[in-house]
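Give me structure tokens for this 200-residue protein.
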Amino acid sequence: MKINSVFGIRLSGALNKTVVVSSWKGRQYVRAYVKPKDPKTEAQESHRAMFKAAVGAWHGLNGRQREFYDRIARDMTGYNLFVSRYIKAVRDGGEPEIPIIIRWTVRNRTLPRNSWLIVRQQDRMLFTDSLAVRRGEIALTPSDVPYTFVLHKDRQEEAVHVIDDLLDADIPMTLESKRLGVKLVADLQAPPVARVSKAK
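Here you go.
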């Protein structure tokens, strides 16, 4: 039986929470609306809490941290990759991984024109930052190494550093190509300074 509106439009979905119009193998049918069960089991509540925490953590990331996940994700969004990794880490009893922010600064006295910092992870281009702004930041996770740092200038480039273990890397690190005449220093983001309220 086909279910059509007075205008000849095929319908689907719940109608006033009394009946549901749906289709199966191209044929539409009507069935009684049944309120979805929500037993709120301990496992479901735990999963919901983890999911809520993961979404909150995603919103707490800055733009470069989100960009990192967008670049490494395949067949899903960066958001979905982060959330799935976050929940897996919590289920496994570990700490969810948050990308480490590394800030870079140009050390040339005169600005090297048409120059870029490129960060690659295998075949993926993670960041391509113009050095014209003299400073910037990238975000990387320890679990997605190795990372290759490349300096690019006027159609020439040179790989100047490879990180195989982000947690054991010598930071601050100097990224320099004497051939291209480009020098950067990369350091970890400084932790926020705690504000101490004065006693009244």
